[in-house]
Task: structure prediction
Amino acid sequence: MDLENINSRRDFIKKMGAASLVAASTTIPSVSFLSCNSLARYASTADTVILLWMAGGMAHTETFDPKAYAPYEKGMESKRVLSTFPKVPTVIDGLFFSEGLESIGKVMDRGAIIRSYQSADLGHILHTRHQYHWHTCYEPPQSVQAPHLGAWIAKELGPVNPVIPPFIAIGQRFTVGEAEELKAFHSAGFLGTEYGPFLIPDPSTGLDSVRPPKGMTIKRFEARYKLYRELVDKSEIMQQGSGYQRTSLMRSMEQSYRLLNSPEAKVFDLSQEPKEVYDQYNTGRFGLGCLLAKRLAMNGGRFISVSTEYEPFLGWDTHENGHARAANMKSIVDRPIAQLISDLDESGHLDRTLIILASEFSRDAILEGRPGKKVKDQVEQPDIINDEKFYGMHRHFTDGSSVLLWGGGIKKGLVYGQTADERPCSSIKNRVVIDQLHQSIYHALGLHAETNYVIEGRPFYTTPDGQGKPILELFG
Amino acid sequence: MEDSWIWLFQLMGRLHVLIVHFPIGLLVMALVLEGLTLNGRRPGLKIGSYWMVYFGTIFAIIAVILGCLLRNFDDYSGALVQQHQNMGIATAALATGTVLILRATVTGRISTYNFYRSGLILTVLSLIFASHLGASLTHGEDYLSSALPLNNEPNDSEVTRLLAELKVRDSLNLDQLDELNLEVRAIIAHNCYQCHNDNKQKGELVLDSKRGFFQGGKSGPVIFPNDPQKSELYRRISLPAHHKEVMPKKGKVLKEHEVALIKLWIEKGAHWSDRAISVFPEAPLALEKPLLPEDSNEDHPVDQLINAYFQNNNYKWPGVVDDKIFIRRAHLDIVGLLPQPDKILQFVNDGRPNKRELLIDELLNDHTNYTQHWLSFWNDLLRNDYSGTGFITGGRKQITDWLYATLESNKPYDLMVKELVNPSEESMGFIKGIQWRGVVNASQRTEMQAAQNIGQSLMGVNVKCASCHNSFVSNLTLEQAYGFASIFADSTLELYRCDKPIGKFAGASFIYPELGSVDGPSVDRRLAKLSAIIVKPENGRLYRTITNRIWKQLMGRGLVEPVDEMDHLPWDNDLLDWLSADFMDSGYDLKSLIRQIMISKAYQLPSIDYDKVEDLRSDKFQFRGPLIRRLSAEQFSDAVSQVIAPVFYAAAYDPNKKGLSSRRIWHPEVKYDRSVLPDPGVRYFRNVFTISDSKIESAELLLSVDHSYTMYLNEQEVSKGADWRKVHRLDVKDYIVSGKNLIAIEGINEGSIANPAGILFAMKIVYTNKEEVLIQSGKDWQSTKVKPDKTWIRLQFNDESWVQVRDYGSSHWDKLIGFNFNQTGSEFARASLVRQHHFLKALGRPSRETVTTNRDDQATLLQALELTNGEYLNNVLEEGAKVWHDLHKNKSEKIVETLYQKALGRSPTIEEREVILSSLGSNPTKESLQDFFWSIILLPEFQFID
Result:
C-alpha cells in the first residue's frame, strides 16, 4: 500500500473495506475449544484503540489534576506537599493541568478527562499486580489465565488490515524486574496464543519483526518459500488428503509468507517519516512509540499499546526525587502525545480511533494505599523535608487518578468526576472503576457488554460476571 | 396515546399471525398457475391467477402493517425480529412491483410476460424466506433441525420417558412425585442456575433451593401449585422464543417436552422431594477390572476390547503402520527424540517378530531421556516451572528436583500422589500454589488453589467453580470446596460466596467423603490422612484420571474428554477401566501403563486426521486409531537440535548439578541511584591474579560473554567471540607467568536499548604437584565505560578510577551445559529443561501459572511468523548451515541424502532430489543450505507425528 497516498480519509476507508474482506477470507478458522454465546453488536464509534500506558503509577496531582502548589523549601513539612508544580491553563476554560503538560492541554478540546478513576484495593502494593488488573480487568491470581484487553479485541474484531497484527504492544521489555509478572498479563490467556500481543519493545526496530529475517533479500525469501512449497507438493503426506492439522499448517505458513513479503511492512518503518516529524515525536522510546502508533492507526491497526515502560523504581515509579523525575517524565510524554492527537485529527483518523491514557494507580507524598486501608509503606518519607530528594510523590495511592480519552466517539472537552482538593485527594464524584473503563472501550468498538466464552464449563466475561457497564456520558 | 386503546392495537398486531398466511397461499398459488399456463396452455387460468396476485399483494401489505404493530405492542426484540421485518417489507414491495409490471403488461406497455414472471418468482422467494424467519421466531431457531434424527441430547430420553409415563396417570405415588421433581430440578439447574442462584439473584429470584423456588422473585411467587397457567415461571418459559419476556434469556429456550414436564410437575402439586439431586452425571468412584471378551482373536487385552468396540461400530481393523513410522512414533513418545538413521535401518532389518515390543522396552529403559521428555507433561500438569509469577515475592516453589528424581526412578504413582498431597520440602510446591503480594480473592487463597489443583490434576474434577459458589457444572457445593480447602488451612476457613463472607465455617473433608475422614488437629495430620485415603484402591477415579491422560498423550485424544472432567462418559468404558485396573495391578507403574498402551495394535494403527477441532470434542467421537499430532514445542526444538544445530545450549535445570560458581559480571549501570540493565556499548574489564612459582601442568579457560568480546591475557590477545551460548574453551598454559597476571576483556553490549550483558569466566590452573587454582569472574573484577588508553591491557596500567563490577545474577541466562571443565554428555540442552522462552512459547509451551492439560497443537499465524522470520530459529539454522558447509563442502547430493535420513528417516524421492539440487546447485552456499534446512523442518512430514 502506498503510504503517501493513503492519507486522505476517503481512500483510507476504501482500502480498509477491501482489507477487511481479505481478512474475512484468509483468517485461520479460530480455535473452537471455546464456545461463545453469540451476542448482538452495537453500532461502533471506533475501529482502533491506542492505549498510552503511564507505567509505574503516575501521580494525578503532579499531572492532570493539580492541587495547591507547595514550592520546595528546606525544612517544609511533608504533609504540605500536594503538588510540586504550579498549575497551567488548558484550551478548555476552567481546566488546569500541571506545568509541563502544556502541549496535551492544547488538545483537550478533542478529548475528555476522567478525574475520578479508582484503582482496586489489592492490599500491599505490587505494581505488576495492579497492572495485571488494569489490563485484564481481573485480579490475579485467577484459576484460568485472563486475557489482556487487547486480546479480547483481537479475538472479537480481528485485524482491520489483515497484514497488521490486531494486538501490538510497544515499548515494554521483558528483561526488567518483575518481568514474569509483566508477561503474565501480556497474554491472550485462555483465548489462545493466536490473539496474543505482537511485541515491539523498541519501536525503532519494529520493522525487524515484519520483514524477512535479517540479511535475507526478498529474492532469497521468495526462493526459499518456493522450494518449501514444491517439497510440500511432492510429499506423500500431503497426497493422503487434507485434514485439519495439515490445512492449518499450510495456511498459517502462507499467511506468514504474505505478511512478511508485503509492502505494508513499511508501516513499521519509522525512517519513512520526514525528519521534522520524526524529531517532533522523538523524546526517546516512548515518543517514537507514539509515532509508530500513529502509523499503525493510519494503516489499519486494531489495538496498539504504547508504554512508558515499567521497570521497578524507574519511569513513573518515583520512590525518591519525585519532583525532578516527574518533570522529566512529563517532558518525555507531553510533546509526542499531543502530536499524535493532532496528527490523527488532521488526517481524519481520530474520529474512529479511541485513545486512552492511563496508569495503574496514582501517587501521594504520604499515603500508601488508600484512606482507611493503610498498607505497608514501601519507602521512608520524613515529616520534615531537608533534602530535595524527599520532595515529591513517593508513595502509592489507589484512591484517585486521572484517565484521558480522545477520539472514537468521545465527547469533546468533557471533564468527568473530581478528586478532593485536600489530602486525601480521593475520587469524590462519579467514581470510575476498571470494569467501566473496559466496557466503555468495548462500547466504542461495538462489542456487547456480556461478551464471554465458556471455559472449563463456565462463562468467562470480558469484565467479571459480565456486570460492567460503559460510562455512556463519555460519548458525544 | 391513551392506554385504553392499546388493547386494540395489540389485538390487531396478533392478527398478523393469521393474516400472513393469506399472501403465502395466494402468491404461491399464483406462481403455480402461471407455470401451468406456460406456452399458451390453459388460458382460462390466467385471469384468476392475476386476481390472486392483486389480493396476495394487498394482504402482504396488511400483514406488514400488522407485524409492525405486533412488534411494538407485544415487545418483541432482537436481530431475528429485525430480519423478519425487513424481509416482510421487502416481500410487500416486490409484490407491489410485480403488480405494477403486470398491469403494464396486460395493458400492452410491456410486450413480454417474462418480466412479470421474474417479478413473481422473486416475490415468492422473498416470501418463503420471510416466512421461514417468522416460523423461527415463533417456534425457535432449532424447530426444524431438532426434529431431525441424531439430534437429541443424551438426557432428553429421560425427560421424554418420564413425561410419557406420568402424563397418563391421574395420581402419582411419592416415588413418582420425587422422580418428577428431581428431573424438573435438573432441567432448572442446567438452564436457570446461571442467573438465578444465591449470588446472582436476577429479578431477586433464586432457583437453586426449595425456599427460593417457593418464595418467588421481585414480582411475587413464581409457582402456584396445581395451576401452571397462574404460575409466572411456567408463563415465562412457554413464551415464543423471541418474546421479550421469554426465559431463559441467555441461550436457547427450553425444549417443548421440558416445558411440558415442568407444567406437569406444577399440575401435580409442585411436590418438592427431600432426596438430594445429582443434577450432573457422576462417574462411580470404584473400579473393577472388567472381564475381557472371550471369543477374540486378538492377543492384547486392549485390542480385544477395541475389537469388540470396532465390531459394535461396524468398523474393520486397518493394517498397522510400517516399521519406519512406528520407530519414529515410539521414539518421540517415549524419549521425545528422533531415531538416528542407523537405528532406523537396524530396526527395519531386524527380523525378530517381537522387535516392536523390544524397542519399547529399550526406550523405556533410557531413563534420562524418558525423564527429560515426560518432564514437560508433568510440569504442565503440576504447574511446575523454572521461572514465572510468584518467584519474585517468594510466593512459589519449584518441585523440579523431586519431579526429576521421581520420573527417573519411575516412582509408583500412588507414592507420587502421596508425596504431592502430603509433601516433603522438595515436593511442596504443588500444593503451595502461587501467592501474589497483597490481598487475594477468597476463591484464590492458596488453600483453595491446593484443592483446585488436586481436584483438576489428580482427580479430574472441577473444584474451581465450587470454590466461589455452588457449581453450575458439577454437583459440588461451596461448602464441599471449602471443606476440601480446609484440609490445607491452619485455621478453620470461613465460607466466602463470590468473595463475600457468609458466616459459615467448613470442617475439613475430602470431596469424596466415602473414602474416609480427613479430620485432624493439624495440617500435617490432615495431609497425612488425605494422602492415605486418596490413593486407596477404592478411589478408582484417581487411577482412571491418569490412565486417561497417558492415553491422550499417546493417542492424541482421551478416552474421556475433556481430560479434566472425568464424570463425562468414555467412548469405551471397559477399556478405560481395564487399563486403569491393570495399571493398579502393575504396582502403579507408569512405565508399565505406557508400555501396555504402546504394544497394543491400537497404538500401531495409521494416524487419523480430522476436519475440525470440534469433532474431537464431540460426544459422537469414534475411535479409529491415534490422531495425527503435531510435534510439541519441546519435541520440535530437540529435533532441530538433533538434526541441524543446537537450539538451546543452556538449561535452567541441571540434573547433574555440576555447574561452576562463576558469576555473570558487567560494568554497573546506575540510573536515579538504582542499578539498571546495561546500555549498549563497549566496557572494559580487568582482573589481576597471582600464580606461585610451582610448575604449571595445565591451564584451561572457559569463557562466555553476552554479547561479544576480545580477551587479552598478559597483553596477548587469546580469544574473541560473539555468542554467549557457546563456551570458549582454551588452553592458556603458555600465556601464564609466575607472579602477577592480568586478564583484560573488552566487552560489547549490542542492541539499540538497555539489555542484559555479562561475562562468565572460569580458569583452572593445575600445578605439577596436583594443586589446583580456580580463577572466576566475580565481584573482585574492575571495569570502566570510559575508553582507556591502549596500555590498559598491561599489568602496570593504573586502574584506580575503575569501579567494581556488578554481579548480574542468574535471572537472564540459563546454565550453559558446556560450562564445566570435564565436558561430558549431550551437546544441546533438552528443551524441557530450559526456562520459558519466546520461541517455545510461540510453539505452544504454556506459561505454567495454572494447570495445563491440553496444549493447542494447531498452527497459528504468530507461530508461523516466529518460524519464518524469528531471529532465534534463523540463527540456529545459520549456525547449522555453517557447520554442514564446512563439513561437506560442495557435496550437495551427500548433504541432501544425510539430511533426509536424519530428519525424515528416509532417502529423498527422485523428484524431491531434483527440486532440491536445482535449488542448491553443485556448489551450495551457506545461505542456500540454510534455506534448504528451513524448508525441511517446516514440512508437514517433519512437523507431524504420523
